[in-house]
Amino acid sequence: MYGVSELTVPEELLLLCASPRTGELDVPRYFTRALAAGALTELQLRGAITVEGNRITEVRPMTVGEPIVDEILAALVRDVQLGRPGARQTRLVGLPTDYEGVPGPAPAGGWARRVAHARVAMRTAAASVQEPRDFQRWLQVLPHLRDLDQRYAQALERRGLLISNRRRTLGMPRTVWTTTAPAHTEQIAARIDREIRPHAHGRTPAPPSPRTVHLVALAHAAGLTGRRYPEREHHATHRYIEDLTAAHHLAQAAHSLIKHDSALPSGG
């Protein structure tokens, strides 16, 4: 199990939304897209998925210990295991099955085996006409990647890192989330500052950790880094972060979906 000191990428992303002055979360619109990419990033960092370019090539069933991430991994395993269209090209590692695409042991009996063969054949046919899913498609099709802003806020509240208050704005009720531990947010921001800014200014200490690079790219894709590093005042840092984000496939997928959602006639 993970502790308070072991925040996941999506949890750190959400805490970066806290105002340094009030501690209230100011969550950008469509932020759940960035959190979804953060959850997949956490799985990549833990070795639960293998990534090549903008695709998931392998999925390894395991337990991370963070309930939402574990739920998302279980959904990934099911999609690959069942041979869903577009997902079949992803390899499932470490989950024994005698019939590809059919979970569990090989069915006993001639009729059951014929049915199992037919199921696999139908799934293979459906999958063969679909392009392999890229990150953007995974972020769109997995239902467990939706509404993550509320789910992670509630999870952090249960851990004592956020508190919720009900307020009314123009007569409409809304929930305001406030951090109970501003030091956590400042520690995250300080880590980013310590690992990123020296490189932006041409100094070359140890390279940023992979976790920090992932976090910064996703935060930039969601529009968070401009709050701490306005381009006019931090041009070199802003440019360096842009370069990191441009090379980060999951951040690019999240950013594309945020732009798409923003452009919808209903505003998403």
Automatic annotation (TrEMBL):
This protein's UniProt keywords: Golgi apparatus, Lipid-binding, Membrane
Pfam families: GPP34
Cell location: Golgi apparatus membrane
Protein name as annotated: GPP34 family phosphoprotein
The species this protein was found in: Actinomadura craniellae
Keyword DNA-binding: no
Organism phylogeny: Bacteria, Bacillati, Actinomycetota, Actinomycetes, Streptosporangiales
Gene3D superfamilies membership: yeast vps74-n-term truncation variant domain like
Membrane-related topology note: Peripheral membrane protein
GO molecular function terms attached to this record: phosphatidylinositol-4-phosphate binding
Cellular component GO terms held in the UniProt record: cytoplasm; endomembrane system
